[in-house]
């Protein structure tokens, strides 16, 4: 995975980290004891290969099959409506689908606007992360916003750790910060073996979007 | 990825391989020329990390969002109905969902039965691979059947290469044979960074099934 640079440590930060990980351990121990191994998990998908966002949307389908409610925040908006958005909007009682911002300008244009956009998206994410009725939260391409430091990593980690005990979260995107991987229960590095783009094949509806 | 052993080469096999790859190249060139980069792609997901099957089901959601019809064959049947099966069976006009066999006995019990089961599943897959009305075919855990040599790899590769030009196929599972990766347009090795199972958390509905 492409990891963001680790910021230098300071004592307050180290203490927040310790507290967050202690909370994670206590919650997991408690949940396992009470519910035969059932627990809300934090999953992270990263790497340069295809499959990060699509695996999150596959878990949405699974969750819906089990009668759960799902919340999705997409941190990068594409130019066109995606297949996942068109499909999951069929189920407004079961899925909240939030496509936030207007796409990032990366480092080239207006960083202040990108930060404001990412913060609006995170506010929406926090609404979902405070709602125990939502069984699965997908934070699609959040890693990109963290990689570019559009969001405060410590706040993001605290908000994730403070979610309802049985709520699952999937975070996708290249460049997952090491501290997010550490907080995660499950993490997959999706490595590129080959991609159709290299043969001149365009992004395909149904496959890439 | 855990690769199956490469069988020793013989001239007939080498010629079939050459013909298959030539057909792939001709089809891709033709499709790109005619349709501005649009082409049916073969995707393979492999590796030990979480995300192989779920990424395929995310592509099903995307494809349905674009109005495509989808066919799914699951080569390993679990003991319980999965979330993906319960969910996608809501759309019988759009999704054919085939759960084949009774689960493999691995090497421990009845190999002949496993082979018969895999062959029935492949027959069903071939029906989908001959139908140009199906835009996306998911062959979930096919790699396992190939790894255990329950199916003839050369026949599988020939049938995949002979599918309708605009049809997409996703093949999932550990142990993808190198010749399948070679035929693929896009391949991702999903590497395990960490898994909740290691913390004592059980497989979660909505996440693993």
TrEMBL record, chains A, B:
Residues covered by the Cob(I)alamin adenosyltransferase N-terminal domain: 8-32
Key words, A-Z: ATP-binding, Cobalamin biosynthesis, Cytoplasm, Nucleotide-binding, Porphyrin biosynthesis, Transferase
Classification via CDD domains: CobA_ACA
Descriptive protein name: Corrinoid adenosyltransferase
GO terms, biological process: cobalamin biosynthetic process; porphyrin-containing compound biosynthetic process
A molecular function (GO) term: ATP binding
Catalytic activity: 2 cob(II)alamin + reduced [electron-transfer flavoprotein] + 2 ATP = 2 adenosylcob(III)alamin + 2 triphosphate + oxidized [electron-transfer flavoprotein] + 3 H(+); 2 cob(II)yrinate a,c diamide + reduced [electron-transfer flavoprotein] + 2 ATP = 2 adenosylcob(III)yrinate a,c-diamide + 2 triphosphate + oxidized [electron-transfer flavoprotein] + 3 H(+)
Gene Ontology cellular-component terms listed: cytoplasm
Organism annotation: Rivihabitans pingtungensis
UniProt-listed Enzyme Commission number(s): 2.5.1.17
Job description of the protein: Required for both de novo synthesis of the corrin ring for the assimilation of exogenous corrinoids. Participates in the adenosylation of a variety of incomplete and complete corrinoids.
Subcellular location, principal: cytoplasm
């Amino acid at each position: 995975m492409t990891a963001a640079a680790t910021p230098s440590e300071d004592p307050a930060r180290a203490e927040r980290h310790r507290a967050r990980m202690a909370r994670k351990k206590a919650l997991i121990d408690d949940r396992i004891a009470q519910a035969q191994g059932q627990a809300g998990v934090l999953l992270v998908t990263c790497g340069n290969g295809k499959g990060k966002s699509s695996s999150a949307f596959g878990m949405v389908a699974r969750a819906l099959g089990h009668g759960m409610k799902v919340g999705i925040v997409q941190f990068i908006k594409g130019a066109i409506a995606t297949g996942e958005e068109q499909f999951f909007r069929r189920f407004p009682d079961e899925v909240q689908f939030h496509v936030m911002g207007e796409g990032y300008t990366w480092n080239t244009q207006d960083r202040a606007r990108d930060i404001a956009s990412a913060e609006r998206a995170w506010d929406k994410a926090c609404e979902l992360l405070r709602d125990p009725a939502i069984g699965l939260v997908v934070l699609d391409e959040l890693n990109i916003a963290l990689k570019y430091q559009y969001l405060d990593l410590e706040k993001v980690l605290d908000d994730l750790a403070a979610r309802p005990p049985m709520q699952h979260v999937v975070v996708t995107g290249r460049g997952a910060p090491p501290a997010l991987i550490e907080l995660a229960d499950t993490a997959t590095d999706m490595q590129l073996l080959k991609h159709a783009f290299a043969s001149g094949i365009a992004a395909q509806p149904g496959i890439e979007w």
